[in-house]
Amino acid sequence: MTPGAIERSALRLDRVGATLAALGVGGLALGPFVSARPNRIVDGVPHGLFEALPPSLAAFVALVAAAAALVALSQAPPVLRAFAGAAALACLTLALGQAPRHLTAPGDIYARVAPGWGYWLAGFASTLLIADALTRLRFRPLARLAALVIAGLAAAAAIGSGALDDLSIMKEYAIRATSFWAEARTHLALALGSVAAALAIGAPLGVAVHRVTAARGPTLAVLTVVQTIPSIALFGLLIAPLAWLARTIPGAAEIGIAGVGAAPAFVALTLYALLPVVGSVVSGLGAAPPPAIDAARGAGMTDWQVLAQIEAPLGAPTFLSGLRVVTVQNIGLTTIAALVGGGGFGTFVFQGVGQTAIDLVLLGAVPTVALSFVAAVVLDAASESAGAHA
Fold first, then answer.
1. Hey, is 37 helix, strand or coil?
2. Does 227 have pLDDT greater than 90?
3. Domain end (from 113, 136, 167)
4. Using N-to-C axis directions, what is the helix angle for 78-103 and 141-160, rounded to 10°?
5. Which domain does 275 fall in, by range?
6. Do 112 and 227 reside in the same domain of the chain?
7. Cα 46 from Cα 31, distance rounded (Å)
8. Does a structural domain hold residue 172?
């Protein structure tokens, strides 16, 4: 593309970018950048961008946000759009870390300064601008994974630098650092362990109902019924039978079976994961073209050889897409496990709800969202890569 063509393209209005620019600029102009409270449980006082920050820093943030909005509005190259979104998000977040120092007295350990909805809206718009640019760039799977690693390293650097330490969520983390990582391990164990159990049960079951078509309808119907049960209700329904097993079967309690705790959470999460797993296996195996299967059998392949060498490779993209859905689903649902004593990030969410402490809620919600996002990107890249090699 010639320089003149690039200039003419940049002058045309981008509809997606116009929406994102309106969200970002509107959030900063009309909404509170932060909310300040004298302690963690009382209502906060909203502060706009120029109240929350020193004038020079607020002006700089506004300038960067305006520049990013102009890039979003134009038909600028995707690389420039990604850079503008990243610069705006980084500037907003690092400036956010300076707001507590501007609004609170030095040494005040009780005051809490949290992001306001204006920051969240502007940050959301910046993130969508980056995502839109990456979509237009049509990155290959490895490039998307590299972008994810870079984003993770940037986030880790920002947190590790101490620039965000005075924010309320980081103060909550500082108080609970040991328990945070313990609950993180529990969350991952429940979420990923239940997915692994669902794969161990659901993959063979999916192969079986693919082969025996008469069993396909009833099996999927039963799993659909399980999927429709509300999560809290399913956790509750499992308490009584698991408690009975713990009392009745010798050694059951010793291996962790109990009416409350991780056991009902693990069983419920596994049950929820079965329908997506079985459904994706059946759909993936059914995607193999009948002529390819007939040719393989004509060449003397057994049913298991057809499954391993023809149906499974061709169905891998569909299966991995289903695995992405179930992994993201279970990472989110594991939050509910805290209601039955299962632990995980939901512990902070429900403690925060009970104490009317939104920062404690965020301490559990933000890493859950981050884990879901990472799982979605990784498994989406794996699915696309498998499709390219199928």
1. strand
2. no
3. 167
4. 20
5. 177-389
6. no
7. 8
8. no
- Report the length, in residues, of the chain: 390
In this structure, is residue 281 part of a structural domain? yes
Q: Does 70 lie in the same domain as 10?
A: yes
Q: How far is CA 361 from the centre of its chain?
A: 16
> Do 192 and 243 form a contact (C-beta atoms < 8 A)?
no
Read off the pLDDT of residues 128-165 as tens digits, 9 standing for 90 and up.
999 899 888 888 888 888 988 999 999 999 999 989 99
Higher-confidence residue: 254 or 201? Answer: 201
> What's the CA gap between 143 and 139, in Å, rounded?
6
Per the structure, how many domains does the chain have? 2
**Residue 173 vs residue 3, higher pLDDT:** 173
Q: How many angstroms separate the CA atoms of 18 and 68, rounded?
A: 11
Structure tokens at 157: 């650097």
pLDDT per residue as tens digits for the range 183-221: 999 999 999 999 999 999 999 998 888 888 888 888 888
Tokens for 16, please give them: 């997606």
Q: Give the pLDDT score at 256.
A: 67
Residues 260 and 356 in one domain: yes
Nearest CA among 286, 266, 289 for reference residue 206: 286
